[in-house]
Specification:
Layout: E1 7-14, E2 18-20, H1 21-26, H2 32-38, E3 42-44, H3 51-66, E4 73-79, H4 91-97, E5 106-109, H5 115-128, E6 135-141, E7 164-170, E8 176-185, H6 203-206, H7 212-217, H8 225-246, E9 256-258, H9 265-272, H10 279-282, H11 285-288, H12 298-308, E10 317-324, E11 328-336
Parallel strand pairs: 4-5, 4-6, 9-10
Antiparallel strand pairs: 1-7, 1-8, 2-3, 6-7, 8-11, 10-11
Helix pairs in contact: 3-4
Length: 345
């Protein structure tokens, strides 16, 4: 979907203190051989801070940087992967209450690790559907420290890190323009994240620990894991090509790639392959390996990092890549128009 007047007006992130993989290995939480093979350096650990409170902190930074008043926000979208608080509760309205307030719609998107980009697409459609709408506030946050998740062992090749991110999308203007965003699904692979677990009663109500490695190992879909991985790679690479072609761009026109944080170097290499020989330099692995896989906040926190550290300049284009359970994929292009001043400046 090509866009003409949707802008990124402000970004925010909440990144708690890190625990190094060396500390985790010494404590017996993380396998030493895996640590050496995968290259994760540390993960962000929020302790007892609830995910929605992290989202509020990131949202306040994004709002301050955006120069938008609370009344400019027409919709709030909160994105999550893991539990946010009590079941049958509404974290999006908690975030709304403690940020811009008012009576605007507040929605939650559960699109797995692809959620933030899905929210950007939905927010763009919402804003452009009516001429009287100005801006959207998107937040995402997860705290993986609950008793049913082992952040060091729960997912193949990855470590879960606690990070929140936020973005103000605006039709009034901003430091960057959202050029386009596209999404596709592979529903035939939904079993990869389900494995042999029953749908009812839900595992979270029976004390079943989250083990995505075991679920993948019990996958009995129509193809083996190697073929499933190949299909996912082909699908995401095709989406990258389609997104570039729609925007009238070539791979060399992309300055940086804000991708999902994965520890498997082969997966990362295949992910960045469409961007040429210098693809590794375009990625954000140096940042990602220091915070862990954050769920839905990988791409948005990476973009915040690139912007806040001055790693991108006016005229640069950043591609955002998302992949989540489902299987779902999203791809977006952001064009940097200006280097934003620090929040509160």
């Amino acid at each position: 979907m090509l866009l003409s007047d949707v802008y990124l007006a402000g970004l925010g992130a909440c990144v708690p203190a890190r625990v190094t993989t060396e500390e985790a290995v010494a404590a017996g939480w993380y396998d030493a051989a895996e640590a050496e093979a995968l290259g994760w350096r540390s993960v962000a650990v929020a302790g007892g801070t609830p995910a929605p409170d992290m989202a509020i902190e990131a949202a306040r930074e994004a709002l301050a940087a955006s120069a938008h008043a609370d009344a400019d926000i027409d919709v709030l979208i909160h994105v999550s992967c893991n539990h946010q608080g009590p079941d049958l509760w509404s974290p999006q309205h908690y975030v709304l209450r403690h940020t811009v307030g008012g009576t605007i719609p507040a929605l939650e998107i559960r699109q797995g690790c692809n959620g933030f980009l899905a929210a950007m697409e939905f927010a763009s459609l919402y804003l452009t559907a009516s001429a009287d709408r100005t801006a959207a506030l998107i937040t995402s946050a997860d705290n993986w420290g609950d008793p049913l998740v082992d952040r060091w062992r729960a997912t193949p090749g990855g470590l879960f890190g606690d990070v929140a991110a936020a973005c103000v999308l605006s039709r009034r203007g901003g430091f960057a323009r959202l050029v386009n965003v596209r999404a596709v699904s592979l529903p035939e692979l939904e079993e990869l994240n389900r494995g042999g677990e029953p749908l009812f009663p839900p595992g979270c109500t029976t004390g079943t620990r989250v083990d995505l490695r075991e679920r993948a190992a019990t996958y009995k879909g129509g193809q083996d894991l190697v073929d499933a991985g190949r299909l996912m790679g082909e699908t995401q690479r095709a989406l990258i090509v389609e997104t570039l072609e729609e925007a009238g761009l070539k791979p060399q026109d992309i300055t940086r790639v804000a991708h999902q944080f994965v520890g498997d170097r082969q997966v990362l290499g295949r992910l960045l392959e469409p961007f040429g020989e210098d693809a590794a330099d375009k990625g954000v692995w140096d940042f990602g390996r220091g915070v862990g896989h954050t769920g839905a906040s990988d791409q948005s926190s990476a973009l915040h990092h690139l912007v806040s550290t001055g790693a991108v300049s006016p005229g640069d284009r950043v591609m955002l890549l998302g992949a989540g359970a489902g299987i779902s994929f999203s791809c977006a292009v952001v064009e940097i128009l200006d280097v934003p001043a620090p929040a509160g400046a």
